[in-house]
Write a structure and sequence with these properties.
By secondary structure, the protein is of the alpha/beta class. It has twelve helices and eleven strands. β1, α2 and β2 form a beta-alpha-beta unit. α11 packs across α12. The longest helix has 17 residues. The chain starts with a helix and ends in a 21-residue tail after the last strand. The mean pLDDT is 91.
Length: 283
């Protein structure tokens, strides 16, 4: 009992020290999440540092490629070995547009991110040669969303209906839909399944990296989004550079166990396609 009371007192004192003014805050991360989700963590750390508060994101196994591509992220990331027992800990997993960050803050981070990277600016310059202002860029996420049953239950969309509805919204906005560039992890499926909605499609020439995909999304004046954080960040980057950028979102990011539709990180300015029941595992 005495030992338990002493331990409880020590924990209370440690919490008091961690909450002291000027204490560093470390945002937890996970090897289970990838680039788009990590960018929300890095954006939080960037905004904290901009406000002169000490903050960093714990490094995960999925981060090195992004840190290599965008040097800004290096100063926002910390190794586990450099975390102190006196650091405040944070474990946020969802970041809501207009709650955790606003449009101006998002633009600030996007511009700083790209400004830090000669490599990504060179990618954008090369990719933009393939994307005219009239080009409609369509992002389709397949992969584990449709191969893993539990992911399909959460993230599966009726892609056919979403893309067809998005094309109609682009038309209603007075924008052309004749030149279509598809960015996808399964372009063969897109060619086979989406021709009725899109007609002839193009794909990126000389693609060598997912960062080429991000460069393409960030270069789009008109963009159809997948329900993927990678896709959302493509739009965030694009809107930071182009006031005419238009992104069409699906009705939701994921489906909760109770059947409700969740879209916490959506930009409120994104028009959404209407929800329709998912087709089978082929999307």
């Amino acid at each position: 009992m005495i030992r338990s009371a002493a331990g409880s007192t020590a924990r209370r004192l440690l919490n008091i020290v961690r909450e002291r003014p000027g204490a560093r805050t470390i945002q937890g991360s996970s090897d289970a999440i990838r680039g788009g989700n990590n960018l929300y963590l890095w954006q939080w750390a960037h905004l904290e540092q901009r406000a002169e508060r000490r903050a960093a994101v714990l490094r995960s196994a999925t981060m090195p490629d992004w840190i290599d591509e965008f040097p800004l992220l290096r100063d926002l990331t910390i190794d586990q070995t450099d975390v102190s027992i006196l650091d405040r800990r944070r474990f946020a997993t969802r970041f809501f547009f207009d709650h955790d960050f606003d449009r101006a803050q998002n633009r600030d981070f996007c511009l700083a991110l790209v400004d830090s990277s000669d490599a990504f600016r060179a990618r954008r310059s090369r990719i933009r040669a393939q994307i005219a202002q009239e080009t409609l860029v369509v992002n389709v996420r397949r992969g584990d969303y449709y191969e893993v049953p539990e992911f399909f239950a959460r993230f599966g969309l009726d892609i056919h209906s979403h893309v067809a509805g998005a094309v109609e919204l682009v038309r209603q906005a007075g924008r052309p839909v004749d030149d279509v560039l598809v960015v996808s992890d399964d372009v063969d499926w897109c060619r086979r399944e989406l021709t009725p909605a899109l007609g002839d499609i193009r794909t990126l020439e000389g693609r060598s990296s997912p960062f080429d995909d991000l460069a393409a999304l960030s270069s789009a004046t008109s963009l159809v989004l997948a329900n993927s954080t990678f896709s959302y960040w493509g739009s965030h980057l694009a809107s930071s550079f182009d006031d005419e950028h238009l992104a069409i979102a699906p009705s939701h990011h994921e489906i909760a166990p109770d059947g409700s539709l969740i879209a916490p990180m959506f930009d409120p300015s994104w028009p959404r396609t209407e929800y329709s029941p998912r087709r089978g595992a082929t999307g």
